[in-house]
Amino acid sequence: MGSNPIPGASFPVSVHENTFIKCNAFGTLGLHLTETDEYDRIFAALKHPLRRQILLLLEEKGEASFTEIQKAVGVNDTGLLSYHLKELGTLVEQSERGKYNLSEIGKASMALFWKVEREKQASNSAIQNYLERIVGEIVFLFFIVGVTFLAPLSADIYLSVQTVFSGLLTTQIVLMFLASLLSMVFGAVLFLFYDRHYFSKNPRTNAVHSLLFAVGISLMSTYSAYISYQFEMVSANGSNFAFWFSILRAVSFLGITPIVTYATGGFLNRR
């Protein structure tokens, strides 16, 4: 078998068949490892919880006696601990004083272990951030829908009840109309900020999205007005006034929302 020198190595290194050079995180570790055996040993050590615990202990303390390892890992069976130390093979070394420490291969194994752990934590963190973002979007959107829909719903119920039992003055009707409409427009502005935060800062895109939002709110509002209308119809003083009141408000909302959101989006972009 032939050997090939490694250019730039700080010490004589030869590469033989079925042999590879294992480098640590700094690219300076020149180790002769038999490929299949050493890889199997490394992965078996990192996979087994007790052996991994032993390696972590030796990495932290630098070296430890058999008794210290036994106490640290909580294994009373000396035969079992001896078996696992033997299975670690070239990953650990025993000094002249009888204490165990990580070999160069063991240090490389732990570097691999921590690299995998960091990547796993980064992956878990990315998933967690994504889920938190999705939950935040949903909660914020439901809040906006609630704020936008609550005002017209309250106005329709109040209007229906007052129409049936006592009637309303024209001033009261106008005030109810303006108050509920302005509350809906305020909800549309909140939706604009939601849209800009999570999706797009383009005023035209915001206007389109806000119009779709307004359509949804208007349909919900019209449906609630229809329920109120049915309630009025079964009463002695029934009328369809509240229903047409809601229709007029929904049409006004659909007309105002794109204009307001487009103007507000353009203003925010110029700031």
In short:
This protein is mainly alpha-helical and 271 residues long. The chain is 73% helix and 7% strand.
What do these coordinates show?
- The protein has 271 residues and is mostly helical.
- It is built from eight helices and seven strands.
- A hairpin with a 5-residue loop joins strand 6 and strand 7.
- Helix 6 runs antiparallel to helix 7, helix 6 crosses helix 8 and helix 7 packs antiparallel against helix 8.
- The N and C termini lie far apart (73 Å).
- The N terminus is likely disordered.
Question: Which properties best describe this structure?
Answer:
about 270 residues; mainly alpha; Arc Repressor Mutant, subunit A; 2 domains; 3-stranded antiparallel sheet; two-stranded antiparallel ribbon; 8 helices; 7 strands; about 75% helix; elongated; disordered N terminus
- Cα end-to-end separation: 73 Å
Tell me the total number of β-strands. 7
Name the beta content range.
5-15%
Name the helicity range.
over 70%
Described by strand count, sense and barrel closure, the largest sheet is: 3 strands, antiparallel
Low-confidence runs: 1-33
Reading the helices and strands in chain order gives: EEEEHHEHHEEHHHH
Indicate the radius of gyration in whole angstroms: 36 Å
> How many structural domains in the coordinates?
2
Characterize the overall form: elongated
Strand-helix topology:
Elements: E1 4-5, E2 14-15, E3 19-22, E4 31-34, H1 35-47, H2 49-61, E5 63-64, H3 66-73, H4 78-88, E6 92-94, E7 100-102, H5 104-165, H6 170-198, H7 203-233, H8 241-270
Antiparallel strand pairs: 1-2, 3-4, 5-7, 6-7
Helix pairs in contact: 5-6, 5-7, 5-8, 6-7, 6-8, 7-8
